[in-house]
Specification:
Length: about 700
């Protein structure tokens, strides 16, 4: 991520939380124009009251933000505590105390452990660097991943960049939403212009975000602009001002979407469009009402196209406000499929709509007939996990006398019935998994998106701790295609999911697969452990190959003739996690490009794997848009023949058939676009995606 000039960031562990990082810093070499948007909650936290009274302002140098403790509803010490922290950070940075702002998020009603923060200030100051991710991680509470976004614009001849981060998760309702968000830019702009730009961006983004309808005490969005880009100061009412507003707006929307996707317990992002409203405030209000309706959200979790709940939510709002809108004349569509129109339900293929609603991003549109105004709101579904995360938040959050906030997840806190069920279930998986081998084909979005990469890495490490022996086989993702284009080798052609590979391109394929993609996956997995080992199909002759002969000449695409699994056995014995790049070594000494789906199947057979799992970008095998949760081998053959299975799925289906024939017990295709899908597949009895059985 490109960091604006003159800014540095830090994230450290100061001891508010028991183990995780909890203190973030943003620092600017130059005094900044600063502006903020804050919660309208009347019970707002001390740092919010303080910052709100000081902004907009000039000359701001730093923001110190802590997680774990909200510094809210603690009485009069709240404000003096916040000021003391600012003063300590100012001393450590050698700047004036009134140039530092504070923000807090976490548990309400516990006094901030000021001494710990004061003591940590020098360490915080010296940890400054360009790693904005560390600051983003330090403000997380129940967030499962850090949220970052950036953008760049030209102002005259100057390049202006904006880098931002946020946290969200629960207690997120419009105006604002629990959000801490910080935007940093090297633009030169006056505090007043910055203030109006920020307000406009927040109005279209965080104000339109609703996770759970509960407004927080701590919402804070602050923008800092230090002028290091050297542009002529941006004035309101100019095209440059509009450009920075739209950069802020798209960054805030991006952060808002990340917050909605990662809402407590959320499994999907829900976007609600309302159009045809008599005025824009009505459109905004109605969009937020639909996104905030518990029944709509529960239906989204269940992938149920229940348009009645959408119109009920609209009707309730319209009725209480006595607005001149007739909800019965609206048109409602879900994922682009019209479900209600002309005063009645539309004829739909409910199964197909349900399949579309299993996507990680669901769009609900309501078109009214009373006007021309429109608005978009963001939210998420309501899952069982929302209650789990929030039911016992304070009773499981323990503040020790020294102010450390620890999550007390000890089993003793649970009811005996729950404890029993949890232990029995966990033990049964652990005994089932011990020393079993699972080959996982890693592909699609799970390889590209940062948050999914992180959850994949966590899952693999968890599976390994539960006794399973995972082996990862990866594809090239979009990297090979991109590199080929950069090198001017033109667009790749795919036949049934297999990349046609010219002789002169096989080196590029190998370079990207083994040199780049493989090492990146190994680094990702070894960030939190040190067990992943990168292996090319050429290493120790793992994948022997010959030219794959088919109707069309596929060039240097190989088929596996033999898997020399000795090296993998050695690694698995020592409980390492092999990460295989699918390059084959020909008898002729040539390198061959092996389709990763096929390589995974051959490796699973050779290792007598207990499971073979394909992570991809669809919920599983789809027939008429509907997910097939189980299918037999001969049925799968028919689906290839009759063209129900096409493109990239053909390579997978053929590989699956080969694996089953070769003795692999169960093969699954699962949706890599949803976080933790590997865990969901292995640790639940229902399974997810498509299971292919032997006949
Ligand atoms: P990967 O990167 O995971 O190998 P591919 O694009 O090669 O993904 O293969 C999966 C693709 O196959 C799906 O995204 C989908 O477009 C396509 N496909 C074709 N027929 C089907 C089907 N019946 N069910 C599911 N996906 C299908
Ligand atoms: Mg593929």
């Amino acid at each position: 991520m490109k960091i604006p000039r003159g800014f540095s960031y830090a994230g450290i562990h100061s001891g508010i939380k028991a183990a995780r990082s909890d203190l973030a810093l943003i620092f600017s070499e130059l005094g900044c124009a600063a502006a903020g948007c804050f919660t309208v909650n009347a019970a707002r936290a001390a740092p919010v009251r303080d910052a709100a009274s000081r902004l907009p302002a000039r000359g701001i140098r730093a923001i110190v933000a802590n997680s774990g403790n909200a510094n809210a509803l603690v009485g009069p010490t709240g404000e003096s505590d916040a000021r003391e922290v600012c003063a300590a950070v100012a001393r450590a940075l050698d700047v004036a105390p009134d140039t530092v702002l504070a923000a807090s998020t976490g548990v309400i009603g516990v006094r901030l452990p000021v001494q710990k923060l004061v003591a940590a200030a020098p360490q915080l100051a010296s940890a400054r660097g360009s790693a904005i991710e560390l600051a983003a991680a330090a403000i997380m509470t129940t967030d499962t991943r850090p949220k970052l976004a950036s953008g760049a614009i030209k102002v005259g001849s100057a390049d202006v960049s904006v880098a931002a981060f946020a946290k969200g998760s629960g207690m997120v309702a419009p105006e604002l939403a629990t959000v801490l968000a910080f935007l940093t830019t090297d633009a030169s702009i006056s505090p007043q212009a910055l203030d109006s730009a920020l307000h406009r961006a927040v109005h279209q983004s965080f104000d339109m975000l609703n996770i759970d309808g509960d407004m927080s005490t701590n919402d804070t969005v602050i923008a800092l602009a230090n002028g290091a880009a050297g542009n002529a100061p941006i004035e309101e009412g100019t095209p440059e001002f509009e450009a920075i507003v739209s950069a802020f707006e798209s960054i805030c929307k991006d952060l808002g979407r990340q917050i909605a996707e990662d809402g407590d317990g959320a499994t999907k992002l829900v976007e609600v469009h309302v159009e045809g409203a008599p005025d824009v405030d009505m459109a905004r209000d109605l969009a937020r009402a639909v996104a905030g309706s518990n029944l709509v959200k529960a239906a989204m979790f269940g992938a149920d196209p229940n348009w009645g709940r959408v119109l009920a939510a609209i009707g309730a709002r319209v009725g209480t406000r006595k607005w001149p809108i007739d909800p019965t004349r609206a048109t409602v569509s879900v994922q682009g499929v019209c479900v209600y129109t002309n005063g009645g339900p539309a004829v739909i293929d409910a199964a197909a709509v349900r399949a579309k609603m299993r996507e990680p991003h669901v769009l609900v549109s309501v078109t009214l007939v009373e006007g021309h105004e429109r608005a978009t709101a963001y939210g998420c579904d309501l899952s069982y996990d929302y209650v789990k995360v929030n039911a016992d938040y304070t009773s499981q959050t323990q503040a020790s006398p020294d102010g450390t906030i620890a999550r007390d997840g000890r089993l003793t806190n649970y009811s005996p019935g729950f404890k029993h069920a949890l232990l029995v279930e966990a033990l049964s998986y652990i005994s089932r998994f011990t020393n079993k081998r699972a080959v996982i084909k890693y592909g699609g979005a799970a390889m590209v998106k940062d948050s999914l990469k992180a959850s994949f890495a966590n899952d693999i490490n968890l599976l390994r701790s539960a006794g399973l022996l995972p082996v990862i086989v990866h594809g090239g993702g979009p990297e090979i295609t991109q590199t080929m284009e950069i090198l001017g080798r033109g667009k790749s052609e795919f036949i049934d999911g297999v990349r046609v590979t010219a002789r002169e391109d096989v080196k590029v394929v190998e370079m990207v697969l083994t040199g780049k993609v493989n090492t990146e996956i190994v680094s990702l997995l070894n960030q939190s452990s040190a067990h992943a080992v990168g292996v090319s199909g050429k290493d120790a002759g793992l994948l022997r190959a010959r030219k794959l002969v088919s109707d069309r000449d596929l060039g240097m695409v190989g088929e596996v003739t033999h898997v020399n699994h000795e090296l993998l056995e050695v690694l698995l014995d020592k409980r390492y996690v092999p990460v295989v790049s699918p390059v084959g070594l020909g008898e002729d000494g040539e390198g061959y490009n092996i389709n990763a789906d096929a390589a995974a199947a051959e490796i699973a057979i050779a290792l007598r794997a207990y499971k073979l799992i394909y992570l991809t970008d669809v919920p599983g095998i789809l027939v008429n848009g509907e997910l097939v949760s189980e299918i037999g081998a001969s049925d799968l053959v028919r689906k290839i023949e009759d063209g129900t299975i096409r493109g990239g799925m053909v390579a997978k289906a053929k590989s699956i058939l080969r694996a089953i024939e070769g003795g692999v017990e169960s093969v699954h295709i699962i949706d890599g676009r949803t976080a933790h899908s590997v865990i969901a597949e292995l640790f639940t009895d229902r399974g997810v995606g498509t299971l292919v059985r032997r006949d």
